[in-house]
Amino acid sequence: MSHASAAVPASSAAAPPAGAHRFSAVISRIAEEMAARDDHGAPADYIPMLAGVDPRRFGMAVAEPDGTVYGVGDWQQPFSTQSISKVFALALALSLDGERIWRGVGREPSGNPFNSLVQLEYENGIPRNPFINAGALVVTDRLQALTGDAAGQVRELLRTESGNAAIDFVPDVAASEAAHGDRNAALAHFMASYGNVTLPVPELLAAYFRQCSIEASCADLALSAGFLARHGVRADGSALLTRSQAKQVNAVMLTCGTYDAAGEFAYRVGLPGKSGVGGGIIAIVPGECTLCVWSPGLDRRGNSVAGVAALDRFTTLTGLSVF
Amino acid sequence: MSHASAAVPASSAAAPPAGAHRFSAVISRIAEEMAARDDHGAPADYIPMLAGVDPRRFGMAVAEPDGTVYGVGDWQQPFSTQSISKVFALALALSLDGERIWRGVGREPSGNPFNSLVQLEYENGIPRNPFINAGALVVTDRLQALTGDAAGQVRELLRTESGNAAIDFVPDVAASEAAHGDRNAALAHFMASYGNVTLPVPELLAAYFRQCSIEASCADLALSAGFLARHGVRADGSALLTRSQAKQVNAVMLTCGTYDAAGEFAYRVGLPGKSGVGGGIIAIVPGECTLCVWSPGLDRRGNSVAGVAALDRFTTLTGLSVF
Amino acid sequence: MSHASAAVPASSAAAPPAGAHRFSAVISRIAEEMAARDDHGAPADYIPMLAGVDPRRFGMAVAEPDGTVYGVGDWQQPFSTQSISKVFALALALSLDGERIWRGVGREPSGNPFNSLVQLEYENGIPRNPFINAGALVVTDRLQALTGDAAGQVRELLRTESGNAAIDFVPDVAASEAAHGDRNAALAHFMASYGNVTLPVPELLAAYFRQCSIEASCADLALSAGFLARHGVRADGSALLTRSQAKQVNAVMLTCGTYDAAGEFAYRVGLPGKSGVGGGIIAIVPGECTLCVWSPGLDRRGNSVAGVAALDRFTTLTGLSVF
Amino acid sequence: MSHASAAVPASSAAAPPAGAHRFSAVISRIAEEMAARDDHGAPADYIPMLAGVDPRRFGMAVAEPDGTVYGVGDWQQPFSTQSISKVFALALALSLDGERIWRGVGREPSGNPFNSLVQLEYENGIPRNPFINAGALVVTDRLQALTGDAAGQVRELLRTESGNAAIDFVPDVAASEAAHGDRNAALAHFMASYGNVTLPVPELLAAYFRQCSIEASCADLALSAGFLARHGVRADGSALLTRSQAKQVNAVMLTCGTYDAAGEFAYRVGLPGKSGVGGGIIAIVPGECTLCVWSPGLDRRGNSVAGVAALDRFTTLTGLSVF
């Protein structure tokens, strides 16, 4: 695959001339607009390593189905993937386990914040979908049970698809999460009381926090998510998911990928997307390309302010919404 | 516009030969598959006029953006639109009132059945979205306040877009709904206690039940929804909605259009869609075509069993999902 | 029965000397303490006729089992009984209908505000207890069905037990309630949708609002509630309730009589009690006496500030708590 | 204090003649009635040591304020106190910490099952009362923080008040609870996420399960609860609680002591009471006596079937209800 920056080549050694790629001009324009914004939101404050990041930082990358990737701003800067990792964990669980994963987690929007226990209780320990924390814990539980190293599998998938072997966990971030992990521990124990997670809770949480601590750049993530634009086909041409499974993941991303703001994201951006509290968002234009944007300032629902705005502008300027 | 049946011409006087349209073969195949199904679900039982319909009936229509429409089975048989009318009421409210309508109703999936009061209470009388009953009441309240005849406006829109001046209310159905209307009355009074509906509740309910009682065929509804595939443009070329508003409506349909099964519909069908307890479902392929399917047997969530299955098959056979 | 004021004879023509009754000194002291309070709360503001009352007004009456009644302050001033009427409606329904009334309403504390719909939905239209509004509507529905005039029956019971034939409805108060009755209408329609109220909702609401509009004084209500201190026996010696039924009513008053503050009332006052938003509270010392206190300023949970404080002082000074 | 069996002397060496005590005849009659029952419920099944107990076993003890205790049936048979221990932990916390304990736990009935997370979430991690599991965890957390050995303090209180130095933990029961402790772990972590428990969760759970594992007999518990009938005064005449605090504990027992059946218990029994899944129930007749009954078969809400029935009969036969 070829890496190529658009207007702001960052550290890329061999940047092609601006405009060499079909969305270069668009993303350059978006980067300028985002730089001019006053409101950047605030970084997540419960993880010290995330809290200190400058909320004005901004990067955006586009990956074409053929593996070409280009970007603007901090598009090659690694950041904490956090909940974006849930998409890759889900894809791996589906790949290894097929439909069975859906016995323990639903595919419906939750209508509640990402870490709510209420719905979980009314629905007997079966989380609504794999992108709220409870559902992601079910997925990691299953992936860990199947592979013995859920977090390592997610890291390996990112490394392989992006071609970047330097992608790795950040132990201090995982440790910070663990130190503030009571809510997730409550979710895990609660589902364990229903038999819907099977690993010892400390092992499950350790795997989950490691998975969330992976650092990767916009370039890495746009490339890694490419299989979702290619209907399940990996960078090397093999199938990670069936066409139907890829559609499942995209559908769940569209309806559930941005916490309690999925409806608004669908209407403003109109693409399957998944955000993380590290400030990143990936988005899929099925059959066309994948996007990843990063800006660490969050809105009150935990989504990157400039990230959502940038994707909104992208679909408006290009007309590439699914609607 | 031209009406044309595909394989089963029904009452169409001048049916073109089968295969004359791009999806004729596909929908004929689907109709055969549906006829072979054992499980048809059961019609809604609380409205006598709906309860008596044979659950094996099936019709499906496709409308092209240019106004051509063709279908199979009972595609020209009028049926009770019920909640499908909510899409047209929303479009009219958006058209007349712009963003203001969103002050009184959200755009997020509800995570609860269509007539739940729970979320409404926790969110202070603001319904989650315009397709649960509470949200539809807010839309009708506003449309009635703006026009003095919400139901008449919806009927007029359907007549104009479909070219079928015979589309009309069915007073007996409206009366049946009113006779079993305690849950909707509770919703309306509850929102009135928050000031989120402004009309006298009996007037609002009368308008709402009239709107839901409109009868139209698959052909009528596929044509009438055409503006959502044409990014807001009506059959006569004028704009009903802006491109952004059309995208809003499609996004809300995808995330909230099939009651508590929106996630599953998104994953199986992958199109913006809206169902009604009369057994109809409309679905939009943005930029491509609109679909309407009808079969009166429902699943436990209130969606047509054969209708969902037929749309699932359509997107699988044609690859026309948004994902 | 003999009416006798303690220290502040109010309009009583022939007041006996202070100290003539066993609690005269205690209630005089309490009245002085209440007069010295700074914080009186605020009258209910949604009924104009209640909103205008001076929150510093205060009256308290004690009725002995033999029908002697005495009081302090505004103890002979009629005020709006509001929810206190629910106790008398429940007693009449039990008397006429026996255990059957408990099929439609529970006897458990609600853990939610008095007009919540949430619990009602989770429990399929069966209200938790007869003192939240939903439960009181069920009781009035049944009493109206049995007698054709629920409100008239409650008025008659109060007149007979108090010996005051002037006790009556206040139509303007009933009309004010009806004008702000959307929440109660929502509750009634919601229960009607489960078949748990049987009358037409407008008839039920009219009966309910009339019942709540009854005006009576502390003296009237302390006397009228006497049967609850006499284990079910009316002033004339006949039985209104069985001993077991009287115990039921007292138990429900203790656990559910003061909206969402029943636990605090039990711990501070330690007596079965029932409050109304008119500022009145009745309380029962089984086998000993009945109390009624009135002061129109309410706390945020709808209970009279000085009323609760006065009863707290009464049980502290006399040691007459049930605990 | 003097131990004396009524009609069924069990293992007591020197039983006085039947009828020597004021309630001897009553409890003998009740024991006969309970022996004749067909329906005994089923023991708690999640703790093997409890599951194996014969549900027909029955014991009942009465302790007089002067320390005399007598009983029938298995009144001297130790059983697992389970949630009954929550009363003693609360009394100790109140004694050591005063009103401060109420900052972290309410005094209102819950309206939800004993181990629900729903209300806890809506009320930001503050449990409704100290007798649901979440509230008991808050009390134990505070008692452990104050004393370093919450469970040891509870055991010591029981030993001292009953005069039985053999009262002790049952490590196997504590271990069984821990092995099925995911729901309690969820509650503890959830409250920790709000800062409403302060100890490390494993330490808190260990203390809590030890406390619940204490075994004591009806005689022991009736004597130990004597301070609640003596308005806070211990067996040795010193004050454990103020009169007001004793009233608080009794009030919370009446409104919240029997899980989701507090209303029914109040109406049937009419006494402050606290049940445990070991099949025991203590009940207080303020100023008169304390009762403890044991029969291991439970109803669906977790209360002893024969225990509730026996207390119901006791208050019916003696007229000793608080109502």
UniProtKB/TrEMBL annotation, chains A, B, C, D:
Q: Which Pfam families match?
A: Glutaminase (PF04960)
Query: Domain of life, per the record?
Result: Bacteria
Q: Where are the transmembrane segments?
A: none
Keyword annotations from UniProtKB, A to Z: Acetylation, Hydrolase
HAMAP family, per database record = Glutaminase (MF_00313)
Q: How does it assemble?
A: Homotetramer.
What is this protein called in UniProt?
A: Glutaminase
